[in-house]
Amino acid sequence: MQTTLPARSRRSLTGPLVVFVLSELCAAGLIWTLEQQERDQQRTQVADIAGDHVQALQRAIELALSANNTLVALVRQGRGTVTQFEDIGTQLLPFYPGIAAMGLAPQGVVKQVVPRQGNENVIGFDQLNDPRQGPEAARARESGRLTLAGPLELVQGGLGVVGRQPVYLDNAQGQRTFWGFTYVTIRLPEVLDVARLPQLTQRGYHYRLWRVRPGTQEEQTIAASVPPPAAEQAVGRPLNLPNGQWMLSLAPAQGWGHPGVLAVRCALGLGFALMMAYLAWLLFRLKAHEKGLEQQVEQRTAEIQATQQQLRATIDAIPDPLFEIDQEGRYCSVHSQRPELLMAPVEDLIGRNVTDMLPALAALAVMDVLHEAEQHGWSNGRQIMVDLPGLGTSWFELSAARKTAAPGGDAPRYIVLSRDITERKRSQEQLQLTAQVFDQSSEAIVIADATHTVVRINKAFTRITGYSEAEAIGQSVRLLTAAESVRDFDADTVYARLTQDGHWEGEVRGRRKDGTTYPQWLSVSSVRDGKGVVTHSITLFRDITQQREAQDRIQRLAHFDPLTELPNRALLAERAQRYIDDERARGGTLALLFLDLDHFKNVNDSLGHRIGDVLLVAVARRLQSLLQSHDTVSRLGGDEFLLLLPATSAAAAAEVANQLLVAVAEPFQLDPYELTTTLSVGIAMYPADGETFDTLYQRADAAMYRAKQNGRNRYGFFTADLEARTARALQIENALRRALERNQFELHYQPQVSLDTRKLVGAEALLRWRHPELGMVSPAEFVPVAESSGMIVAIGEWVIRTAVNDIKRWLDMQLPLRAVSVNVSAVQFRHPQLPEMVTRCLVQAGLPARRLELELTEGAAVDDPAAALAMMDQLHDRGVRLSMDDFGTGYSSLSYLKRFQIYKLKIDQSFVRDLEDDANDRAIVSAIIRMAQALGMQTTAEGVETDGQLDFLRAQGCDEGQGYLFSRPLPAADFEAYLRSHLAQPAVAAKL
Description:
34 helices; elongated; single chain; ten-stranded mixed beta sheet
C-alpha cells in the first residue's frame, strides 16, 4: 500500500523542522556558553580590580594599627607608667600616616592622648562604659587581642575607626591583671584616600565598601559610589581586619556582558539553524528517493526469491538425485537430498564426465539416455546398476529432458532424474523368492478366502495329501487339512473363531486322498486388511509321522535300557516316587533290592562283551519271570539291577531275594557256552531305611557291597552301623582329596634289626595321616579308600619322594643307612609309569638305586603274574630291589615266586604274634624261612615283641626282625636322633 502525498509531505517537513529546532538549541547553547565564559572572565577582572584596592586599604589600616605595638611596649617597659608620653607620641605620629590620635586608657579610661590639642574632650573618656564603644572595648578586654571598632563617630568629631590593644601586667603576686588599653584613632577619609576608591567610578564601576555589625548583624556602608552597585550583580573581595571583616563590592556601570556581540551571535545561530534545516530537507528528499528505489528492489528481489524458493522446494521435495549434464556427459550441477546415493561428493562430481564416475555399462546407458533426449526431447525408463560406497549394489531408473537453451547460448544441457528403485528391485526379487519358497516348501501351504475356500495350494500339499491343484481349489480347507478332531482341536471351531483368535497351532490327524490318516503339525493364521477385517487365512501343515516315530524311540531310550529293554533308573525313579506316595498315604512299606552279578568282569574279559551282553539279557528275562505284575525290575548299567517291590514287607523281600539267588545260580545255556553266575543283593526298606528313592537307592547299594564283602551269592539288609561306616568312608574320601596339597601326611620310621647281632640294619617307613579334625587316621582305613578312588598313585609318589629325600639327607650326614624300602599298593604297582616315576625321584634326590627297596603284597604279584613279572624286571634293571610283604597271607604261587625278582620275604606278624603258644604258627614260620633259604632269599619277621619270639626266630635262621621289642615307629626327627645313637650300625629301610 502506497503512502498518500499529504502524509509524505508532512513527513518531509517534520524532519527539517526537527533539525531546525535542534540546530537552534545547539546554537543557543553555544552562545550561552560563550556568554557565560565572557561574564566569568569579566567578573574575574572586576574581582582582581577590587582586590587591588582592598590590598591598598588593608595595608594603610594595618600600618596605622601597628602603632599599638609600640605603645604596648612603652607601657610594659614602664610597668604601667609612661612618662613623657606626649613627647614620644609626637615623635611617633609622623611615622604612621592616617592616625588622628593615639593614647593610653588605664582601666579603659583615657588618661593620655597625643596630640592633646583638639583631643581635650577625650581625656577621661570611659571606653568600657560608653554605649557605642563599650561592647567592642569589652570584647577586646576579654579576648586580649587587638580589636578594631568602627566606623563610628569620633569624640573628636568625624568618622573613624579605633584600634584597641588590651594590656596585661604581672602584679606583685605574679598574676596577670588587666592594666587597660592602648589605642589609636584612625580617621576614615584619610585611609580611604589611600585606597583611591573614587577612581573606580571613573573607570566605569559602581562600588560599595561595607561591613556587618558584630552585634546586630546589620550591613553598614562605609563608602559607596552613587548609585551603589546592586548586591546581586556585584563582585566582592573581603578585607580582613582585627575583630571583623569589610567587603568591597564592584559592578560595571554598564552591566555585565556586551549586548551587540550577543545580537551578532544570535543572528549567526539563527542562520546556522536555517541552513541545517535546509540541508536536512534536501537529505530527507534524497533518502525518500533512495527508499523508494530500495522498496522497488526489495519487491523485485522478494518476487525472485519466492520463485527460487518455490523452485528449491520443488527440487528438495524430489527424494532422488537430480543432475544437469551437458551434451558431452559432464556434470554441470548436482542436487540430492541423500548424498549416499551419489558416487562421490557433489564438489567432486562437478565438471567430471559420467564415464569417469560410473561403471562402463551404466555410463553407456546414461549417454544413450542423453542421445534419446536430444532426438525426442525426453527419455524415460532406462535402468542402471551401480555399486555405491556404503550402500552396495543399487538400482536407478533414469528420466531425462532437454533443457531449453538461451538464444545464442552454449550447447544444450539435459536434466536427468535418477530414481532409486533398489527397494522395488529387492521387493520384486523377494516376491520371486517368496513364490519359489511357496512352491518349493516342504510344508503344505493352503491359502483360503474369508469363507475358508481354498484359492491356492503349493506342491507340498499335493505331495502330502494326493490332491492336485484342480481338485483342491474351491474346496473347503477344513475338509482337506484335518481328518478328525483330536485333543483340543476341532476344525469347525478353530476356523470359526479364527477372526477372534487370529492363530492356532497344534498336532492333529490328517487324511490323504486315499483315505489313510497320518499325524500332522497344523498351523492356521488369519490375514487382515488395513481396516482389520479378515480377508484370508493361511494354513500350513507337515507330515510328522517320522518325527513321531523318532520321538517314540527317544522316549523309550530315555526310560528303557536299550540292551535288556528293562526300565532304566529314570523311569524306575518315577515309579518309585509314585509307589512311595501311595505307601505313605496308606501307611504301608515297600522294598528296593540292589542286585549285582558276582565276578561278571571275568565273563567280559574271557569271553568278550558280546557274550556278556547275552548273559545280561538272559539274567533280565529270568528276573522278570520271577516278579509280579506290579513289581519293577530295572537295569542301571553294567551288571547292576534294581528291583522295586511295592506293598512288600521285609520278610517278603527276603523271600524274593532268596528266590532270585536260587534262580540266577541256575546255569545259563548260551550257545556254545554254559555259564553260571551268582548275585549279591542289598535290601533297603521304606520307610525304615529312607523316605525318598535316592536314599533307598544309596542304602540298598551299601547293603549290596556288604553282601559282597561277606562272601557274595547272598543278600543283606541295610543296617545303622553300615550307614555309619558308609558315612565315615565318604568323609575319609572327601578329606583325603585335599590331604596331600595341605601337607597332612607324614612318615614314621620303625627300625629293622639283625637277629644275630641285635644291630640296626634298616627301618620300615610307615605312612601316617594327621587330619586337623579326624586326628590320626589309620592306614588300614584310608589306604583302601585311596586305592578305590585312584588317589593312591599320587600319594605313593609323595611317599617315595619323601623317603628318598630323607635317606639322602641322612646319608649326607654320615648316618648308618643301607637302603630304603617303600611299600607299593597293587593299584600303584600296575601303573605303567611306575618305573619312570621311581627313577625320576631317585635322580632328583641324587640317591643311588641300590638304596631303594620296594615291597609288594602277594595279591599285587599273583593277580596278573605276567604283568607283575614284566614290571619287576623293569625295576630290577634300574637297580631297585624288591621284597614281598605279608608273605603267607594271600594266594601264593610258588611257581611264579621262583621267577620273581624278589630278594626278601617278610613274614606277616599274624604268624609271629602266637609263636610261643601256637605250634601251627611255628611250623608255618619255619617253613617260610626254609623255603626262602632254599630260594636264596632273606627273611624279615614283622611284629617281634617278646624275647621268646626273638629266640625262636633266631634259632630258625631268620635274618632280620622289627617290632616293639626293638623300637616303636618314630617320626623323622626322632628317628634321626635314633640313628645318631647307632652310628656303628648299618643303614635304613622304609615302607608305605
